Amino acid sequence: MRRSLKNIGLVTLSALITSGCTMLGPDFQEPTAPVESDWLETDDPLVNSESPTDPKWWQTAFQDPLLDELIEVALQENLTLRSAALRVLQSQQQLAIAIGNQYPQQQQATGLAAREKSNAVIFNDYSLGFNLTWEVDFWGRYRRQVESASAALDASVADYDGAMVSLLSQVAQNYILIRTFQARIAVARANIESQQESLRVSRAKFEAGEDSEIDADQAESLLNNTIASVPALETSLQQVKNSLAILLGKPPHDMNYLLGEKGDIPATPATVALGMPQNLIRQRPDIRAAERQLAAQSAQIGVAKTDLYPAFAIGGSIGSSAMKTGDLFTSDSSTWDLFGAFQWNIFNYGRLRSNVRLQDALFQKLLVDYRNTVLPAQGDVENSIVAYLKSYVPLASSQVAAAASTRAVAGSSAQ
């Protein structure tokens, strides 16, 4: 009878240790979302369906060494990007904790050294011990937690990528705005000089009786309107410089030492490489983050389901005690024990089942959020494509108008 019970116990213990292959909960499947097979403006020669492959796209797009330097500084010093990187580090440690939970959860080494006196007798007591407890991952609870933590890490990496992409675009945009405002201020000051000369000529012609006073008044009004526009341009220029300084991780200060008083506005190639709409799901960090958050929540459904079943644990301890330290490892006063146990929350089934339904509802909500991320992303790209292509229509007209204005200035100056 004792031998049979012992054999049954060993078989049960072996089964608990070796059969940890059950995984409760759904296995995550990549979600589907409606994606068009091509862009709306595929026939336009300025749209290229090839995927952009250069990770440092701004270097080939703008070819501006100063902009390249600003971006490198921003990547090193921007505080928002640092915060995103620290969130990645937090997720890494949470994944490491989840992996560690698969091994014995309680491990403790104990030691005691005591000196006592009883009835005029003084004696010493020394002991050493070690014990551990391991909850066997019979239902896949800890493996699902690792799966969830791993997906959460991927989501934090995608968030970091999103912060980096946003930072790169903001630095480039602010730099181009700075160069644009500098050029507009230079043009306004040149116009002021020309309009001052025009006003002088108008007044001279009026005093000579060749023109009416209206022409001189109109020239004076145009001049003062141009003068009034310069402070607004200077204000906007300084505000953009302050924004750029913050992106570089610095307090607002004079950026002229780095930017100079004036520089050329970076020019970009007309053709844009977009790739296919299906690539959008793989490339956009916000879509990848939403998909990984969905995967992390899927694993949490399995974690919640494991609470419906009993948790099995094994463990034991070993120790030794002696009157002298030298006898700790040779003394016959040694102890050890092994145990197996289970815990089952059989009276909390209502709450536990509600938790499973809660985790599933959170999953369904994230699934809707994922699809709601994919659709606006396609809309953003389509809007950007049409805005980019249509901007070339007024550009051509503006170039013709500029040429005509140049000829008009030359003719007026000759007169």
Element-by-element helix/strand order: HEHHHEEHHHEHHEEH
Measured distance between first and last alpha carbons: 125 Å
Number of strands: 6
Category by helix and strand content = alpha+beta
Mean pLDDT: 84
Strand residue content: 5-15%
Largest sheet: 4 strands, antiparallel
- CA radius of gyration is 37 Å
Cα shape: elongated
Spatial order of the strands forming the largest sheet: 2-3-5-6
Which stretches of 5+ consecutive residues score pLDDT under 50? 4-13
Helical residue percent band:
55-70%
Number of helices: 10
Q: Describe it for me?
A:
The strands form 2 sheets. The protein has a 4-stranded antiparallel beta sheet with strand order 2-3-5-6, with no helix packed on it. The model is unreliable at 4-13 (pLDDT under 50). The protein has 10 helices and 6 strands, in the order H-E-H-H-H-E-E-H-H-H-E-H-H-E-E-H. 62% of the residues lie in helices and 13% in strands. The chain is elongated. The protein has 415 residues and is α+β, with helices and mostly antiparallel strands.
